[in-house]
Amino acid sequence: MPVSVCDFIAQTTVSQPDLTTDTLVVFGVVGLALVLFLTERLPIDVTAILLIVILVVLEPWTGVDPATGISGFANEATITVLAMLILSGGISRTGLVQELGRRMAGFAGDSLRRQLFATVAATGPVSGFLNNTPVVALLVPVVTDVANRGNTSPSKLLIPLSYASQMGGMLTLIGTSTNILASDVSARLGSQYPELHRFSMFEFTKLGVIVLLIGSLYLIFVGHYLLPERVPPRADYLEEYDIEDYVADVAVVPGSPLVGQTVREATAILGSDVDIVQVVHDEARSVAPRQATRLAEGDVLVVRTDRDAIATLEAVEGVEPVGRATAVDDLTAPTEAGIITELVVALDSRLVGERLDPEAFREEFNAAVLGLRHHGELVGERIVGTHLDVGDTLLVQAPPDTLDRLARRDDVIVAREPPRPEYRADKAPTAVAIMIGVVAVAALELYPILVAALAGVVAMVVTGVLEPNELYDAVEWDIIFLLAGVIPLGIALEQTGGAAYLAWLVVQSAGFLPTIVVLWLFYVLTGLLTEVISNNASVVLLLPVAAAAATGIGSNPFAFVLAVTFAASTAFLGPIGYQTNLFVYGPGGYRFSDYARIGAPLQLVLSIVTVLGIATFWGV
User: Fold this and answer.
1) Rounded CA gap, 544 and 533, in Å?
2) In this structure, which of 2, 34, 125, 393 has its CB flanked by the most CB atoms within 10 Å?
3) Residue 562: phi, psi to the nearest 5?
4) Starting at the edge strand that comes first in sequence, how are the strands of the sheet with 412-414 ordered?
5) Could you give the count of Cα atoms lying within 13 Å of 542 in the half-sphere of its Cβ?
6) Is the pLDDT assigned to residue 329 strictly greater than 70?
7) CATH number of the domain at 254-317, out of 3.40.190.10, 3.30.70.1450, 1.10.8.60, 2.40.30.10?
8) What's the whole-model pTM score?
């Protein structure tokens, strides 16, 4: 018979739980999940669905029947996270967060420390009450503009923006989806451990305030020395992306076969590697021309391609190369027709996993692709066909109204504020009142946070803060599917005795250490695991193990639950561990090592602060 966590609690610390076939099968599923999360061979939501299928198919060993397999979709944590994402989307539609950022920017000036203070002050407290993922998405363009106006490299501010949002997320239960999920797991384990319960709204606020203050002081006074200036202050985008080597002007000569042809047909003649990003006709400039646009004699085409294709343009019948320098001048010529900026591929974007097709992108988004950073590295030559991923950054040129529209979509994050942003500013007081009401109802325990959040969603729609069709766009569906997939995996790990066995291994290897050191080791283990899989998955897998291990050494399970929760919600060692780190990867021009350079000391400091805080407030 498999050994349950309850059975393990009743055993002495020297009694080894049986390593059954059921346990080994679940360990195999966990191992597969880790590999898929780490390699990203499948999108994260597809991986989550696959886990559900595998667990149900292997029911004789996993104990997960179809009802348990899909229980994650109806789980309180999943629905609460969904509702909180919608509420955050309502706040973002009012422009309230951006306005706060702009007001702080006015205070910052050209002092780096004041800019850092403004970034942290605008991000941390807000992230305690709004999901920190959309907060960072909203503030990336604001903070980038703060840097440019203050003649500071955006690289100095964008990682601090991400880290401040993560620390701010630990102020309340609703600051991050990880907190909500950890609360649900803790409540489920409460039937086995009397010390465990569902988190209240401000359960760990006192520790969260300390973490935010100490982390902020580090970012303002120490961290910026460790961050290189990857992107120069007020960087010239064309120089940063080496565009001069990949653009050229070609003129449509008299008698050319391109005369009367559409842009689509002209692209087929010029070659599939050539993308027409502008058409200049009688001094009128068409940026990101539609494929149905017809060409005339004397038109000048600004094209983006690779070096070899530019050289072969000289041999194409009916066009005459004008030159590369002229093309760069055409791109940067002052005009209301087009603005050059960066677009970051968002977490739940339809572009994730797709091959970049500049023609299709231009047709759908009305923006011409000029350059690409893939996984932080500049793609110089051939950008066509590159598989896009979360955090990839596209350099584009688009009309101002297009940027306004893109800023309201969830596929991309506009890295610089659009010139004419449109927000429902008149709805800001209503949105704030609804959010305060949700927090108050949950904090006073009048109703569960789930009910309060769903009521808030209805109120947002009824009052016009959100349109009904915007509800679905506000949800990051890959996070929802991830929660639905890992929740039954955590149940299988508990039911088959896998959590008990892992806890026994911890007790055997670290049981001779002081309890506070074991607590610190769990914090470190969670932080490292979060860097290779999602923060939500690490919480689901490690919370049962931490609680069982705590009981095995006669410690306080709630202290270990909090250590795992804090460690999973503050991932500073790389861009993969937390989605907000990916959002700043491209706009900051960062390398993978930059995160560890500033994040490792911060992680070490906060590991000590958090563990000591837990020991002081809750005991070990």
Assistant:
1) 17
2) 393
3) -65, -40
4) 377-379, 368-374, 393-398, 339-345, 412-414
5) 30
6) no
7) 3.30.70.1450
8) 0.80
